[in-house]
Amino acid sequence: MTIINLGEQNSVLNKFVAEIRDQVIQKDSMRFRRNIERIGEIFAYEISRKLNYESRQVTTPLGIAECRIPDDKIVIASILRAALPLHTGILNIFDNAQNAFIAAYRKYSKDNSFTIQIEYASKPSIEGKTLILADTMLATGSSVVLTYNRLCETEKPEHTHLVCPIASRNGIEYISKHMPHKSVTLWVAAVDEELTNKSYIVPGLGDAGDLAFGSKL
User: Fold this and answer.
1) Are 134 and 76 in contact (CB under 8 A)?
2) pLDDT tens figures, 151-198
3) Which of 10-19, 31-40, 89-98, 207-216 is predicted with the least confidence, judged by mean pLDDT?
4) The pLDDT of residue 199 is above 90
5) CA 110/CA 140 separation, integer angstroms
6) Parallel, antiparallel, or unpaired for β 184-188 and 159-163?
7) Minimal CA–CA distance to 176: which of 167, 168, 184, 165?
8) Pairing mode of beta strands 137-138, 114-122
9) Element (H, E) at 32
10) Sequence-ordered strand ranges (E) for the chain
11) Is 52 left (phi over 0), alpha (psi -120 to 50) or beta?
């Protein structure tokens, strides 16, 4: 598996990451959502540089222009609900992409252990396409692996780009062991070293879904 950490480069991406981590700025949920959306746009631009391109002729009012256009058929898949702003940002760039949505959540036991429950999946065909699987946080990695397996039960994408802006070291190691090595690229903006006993990333940013859309029941 190829791992690309855009946070290691100096760019405006690091400003947006700093703001989604900042507990004061987080209080503005609209700004939190917009920052994640902008992060998605940056990741999508970088992914666009890895796609296949073909030359096409475009008719202008004054003549014919040769343009290099991405040729990949793209499906953007997101894990509800925290990844919705990230999904929007990616879709802003790949605006003719197809879309998939997976409802996955942690079901906790009394001892704070949990299992990942997947109760809903909506997707187009991904056979031979470029799959972009987005989740704002990569903690243990188990939800991403289960989601990928659910999407690929009967079909296989040509290549999968995982977009996880905030990732834990444990999560990266887990998906490295449980996902195809040659056909997966993981894109991150920050790698944090610690998980709590409840598998929250430290320093992380908190619960991205709650910060974007309000507390759960």
Assistant:
1) yes
2) 999 999 999 999 999 999 999 999 999 997 789 999 999 999 998 877
3) 207-216
4) no
5) 19
6) parallel
7) 184
8) unpaired
9) helix 29-48
10) 2-5, 53-60, 63-70, 74-80, 98-108, 114-122, 130-134, 137-138, 159-163, 166-168, 184-188, 190-192, 194-195, 201-202
11) beta
Nearest to 20 by CA among 198, 165, 162, 193: 165
Q: Which two tokens stand for residue 29?
A: 């949920």
Whole-angstrom Cα Rg for the chain: 18
User: What digits encode the pLDDT tens for the residues 130-156?
Assistant: 999 999 999 999 899 999 999 999 999
**Amino acid residing at 28:** D
The three-class DSSP label of residue 213 is helix
What pLDDT digit, counting tens, does each position of 7-48 carry? 999 999 999 999 999 999 999 999 999 999 999 999 999 999
Query: Phi, psi at residue 179, to the nearest 5°?
Result: -125, 160
The pLDDT score that the predictor gives to residue 186 is 97
87, 76 in Cβ contact below 8 A? yes
d(CA 106, CA 128): 31
